[in-house]
Amino acid sequence: DLLISQIAAGEVVERPASVLKELLENSLDAGATRIDVQLEEGGVRLIRITDDGGGIAPEDLCLALARHATSKIGSLEDLERVSSYGFRGEALASIASVARVSIGSRTTDTQHGSRIRGDTLAVEPAAMAAGTTVEVADLYFNTPARRKFLRAEATEYAHCDEALRRMALANPAVAFSLAHNGSQRRRLAAGDLRRRAQEILGSEFLEHARSVEVGAGPLGLTGFAALPAYSRSGRDEQYFYVNGRFVRDKLLAHAAREAYADVLHGARHPAYVLFLSLDPAGVDVNVHPAKTEVRFRDARAVHQFVFHALQRTLAAPLA
Ligand code: ADP
Ligand code: MG
Fold it and tell me: What is the pTM of this model?
């Protein structure tokens, strides 16, 4: 059983950043309005995440660590229109099979919190504020073969930071903080997308960005797309979301690149943060738990919509 968990973990838990992504999703699913992340040694030594979400009742703490236990899906129909990030109920079980995990939690209607240890499943009382704290220590301590694939601390940290950026852009109403080896790296106040985009992508980006707001039937595209005058910082600044989930999708990237083709010449990459919304039945996000790809039922229509929406926005005369 541990072996099965460890094999499954290999797919979900590629590196500290993939652990952090799962934990961030859980906090957001729990309705958190503030999420604090502390990392040590690029997240390999420690990932500690604290949220002010709904919490877990003491009697459910064991379930949170059990494989295929999710509180988010009640039926197969639910799976068709899942709006939470998580629904498989295997992230925590997988993570607990390859790291030292503990979860402390307190629901708003109780006076006392409880903490569970991933290895013994022992539950003990814990003094804490309402919400949940998950600690993931010593990633891959028991699977040295995997541990070898981890990169330098700075690289793993950079991936963690990127995971947080992706999540923070899609959830501007939630406050985030990030610390690494005891020093504060990010402090993102709750606000709107404009403010969050400015914090994450910089004022330079926002000054040269067009606001995107196009709708056509069930399809919608919102966000910000930089005009060619924006000289980007050098890092990848293409953030595409489908129904709130970050994706790296060939079809969408292609539609965007085509829309930019007339205004952006040469080898330069466009910069944008875009949110595509569509009927959940028209997109399959379940292709792979850890991958960021999706499958559209009507790929052609989606491509055309994104292309035209973006092209029109970029071509509009300056106000
Ligand atoms: P999933 O997110 O797919 O349900 P996970 O393994 O990520 O599966 O989490 C298992 C369960 O643990 C969740 O369904 C939820 O009930 C609970 N849980 C995990 N993290 C939190 C959190 N931060 N706040 C409240 N509940 C949580
Ligand atoms: Mg989850």
Answer: 0.93
